[in-house]
Amino acid sequence: MTKLSTNNMRNENTRPHVAVRSPSLLSKVLAVAVMALAVLASAAFFMLQRQIKEAPAFAVLNLNKVVQVNETILASKGLKPEELAVEAKIFARHMKTEIENLQKECNCTLLVSSAVISPTKLPDYTEPLLQKLGFTPDKIAKSEILVAERMKALQSDFSKAFK
After folding, report:
1. pLDDT by residue (tens digit) across 96-116?
2. How many whole angstroms separate alpha carbon 89 and alpha carbon 70?
């Protein structure tokens, strides 16, 4: 029996002792990579949250009014049809440019007001657009008066022609 116990001791003594090893270089690199990914993920999350909060708002434009004002001003000038066509093209380009500038300034998406159905009242950028196009309230009023006077004169001439 002593032999057994000596054998048992030898077996216990000859078993390799598990030593605590220091982490290998690979595990250190993996740990650093995981930490870096966690930092990047949290930064991306906060940037996304910020973008969502700063997402462009919506606003409206009454393009019918803008076009009517332009037509009134052109009508008050008494231009020939070919001159009207040239003025209309110039106006269309100018209006497009000013709408793009207005969108950049307000950091918003501009929608045509007649196409919007919303319980929320959206900001209206029609007046700022009119001002950018050079259509001041005074200029609009003067043009409307001129057009009204011309219409009265035409009606008077028309009724005289058929008497």
Report:
1. 999 999 999 988 999 999 999
2. 12
